[in-house]
Amino acid sequence: MTTTTIDSMVQRKLVEILRILYENHEPIGARLIADRMNERGYPIGERGVRYHLRILDERGLTRRQGYDGRIITDKGINELNNALVGDRLGFIITKIEKLIYDTTFDPKTGKGNVITNTSIIDKNDFDRTIEILKYVYDNSYPISPFIKLIDEGTITPDFKIPEGRMGIATMCSITIDGIMMKNGIPVNTRYGGILEIKDKKPAGFEDIIVYDGTTIDPMRIFIAKKMTRVLDAVDKGSGKLLANMRVIPESALSEAEAVLRSVIDAKIGGIAEIGKPGKSVLNAPVDMGKVGIVAYAGVNAMAAVEETGIRVDTHPISTIVDFKDLKKL
């Protein structure tokens, strides 16, 4: 084994340890880090983790917190964001595939796990936020009315709700992909984009990003760039909404249409358009033998909140939640 290969393997382990510390939000010890590393396919023991942690400490990327373990430093977070960009290209689509697999919701029974987005707001903005969410939903815009409130101090692998703030989980449209897969329909989540709305109808994608070609969730990119016009779409019938497209085999179209009808009836999400075999859908390309299905993104509701000037930190395609824990607006 060459020195270059060894260095590459060590570097990958260092980055993965940084990622584990970043996701944990609180100090974590070598034994638990070793368990997490093995779960992610890195065979390493507690002793090996300590060796790698010493390297990270020396570089100022991690810091010991007494007997509680290590935390990642600001320098470590910056290093993590810049490290192994090539490896991170597949991170978003890999996460999507895992969450799709973990989806168990059955529209017929109304039971099972669904995928949610998580948005974090100041507690003082809660009443106004709920008003906006209800306004968007009451005006027949295709968002799911089901949400979950998350208390301050809650910690998950994806986020921590700081003091003085609270989380709102909204239905993620990728749940639709999970439902189709559980019904035996092969599905490939392909694009996220900005969909132009004219006269209350989808006109076409203005911009799209391929999920397996980005290190950042497309929805976060479009929201951060303030490219949505959800409230314009609600108030004037013309605006810009977030949407995503998945493709299925042409042979599964008839069965998929039946499943999608049950999804709409269950108020899990809204379908913008179902394409024709081998034809582009709302300007988004589709391969021969495939059919494109465009759904409105669940984060549109919180994008509308942000358009009013309320500070919102949204984590799209965040986690799995039991549907019974969600409440209707």
Fill in the keyword field for this structure.
Arc Repressor Mutant, subunit A, 2 domains, 329 residues, alpha+beta, Alpha-Beta Plaits
Would you mind describing this structure in some detail?
By secondary structure, this protein is of the alpha+beta class. 38% of the residues lie in helices and 25% in strands. It folds into two domains: 3-88, Orthogonal Bundle (Arc Repressor Mutant, subunit A), CATH 1.10.10; 101-328, Alpha-Beta Plaits. It is built from twelve helices and twelve strands. The strands form three sheets. It has a five-stranded antiparallel β-sheet with strand order 11-3-5-4-12. It has a five-stranded antiparallel β-sheet with strand order 7-6-8-10-9. β6 and β7 form a beta hairpin. The longest helix has 22 residues, at 3-24. The radius of gyration is 21 Å and the shape is globular. The relative contact order is 0.15.
Number of strands: 12
Measured as a percent range, the helix fraction is 25-40%
Please write the string of helix (H) and strand (E) elements. HHHEEHHHEHEEHEEHHEHEEHEE
Instruction: Report the major sheet.
Output: 5 strands, antiparallel
Going across the major beta sheet, what is the strand order?
Answer: 11-3-5-4-12
Spell out the CATH superfamily of the largest domain: mj0159-like
Multimerization state: single chain
Count of runs of 4 or more consecutive helical residues: 12
Average pLDDT value?
Answer: 91
- Cα(first) to Cα(last) distance is 59 Å
CATH class of the largest domain: Alpha Beta
Rg estimate, integer Å:
21 Å
**Class based on secondary structure composition and strand pairing:** alpha+beta
Backbone shape: globular
**CATH architecture label name of the largest domain:** 2-Layer Sandwich
The residue ranges in which pLDDT falls below 50 over 5 or more consecutive positions are: 1-6
Question: How much strand?
Answer: 25-35%
The name CATH uses for the topology of the largest domain is Alpha-Beta Plaits
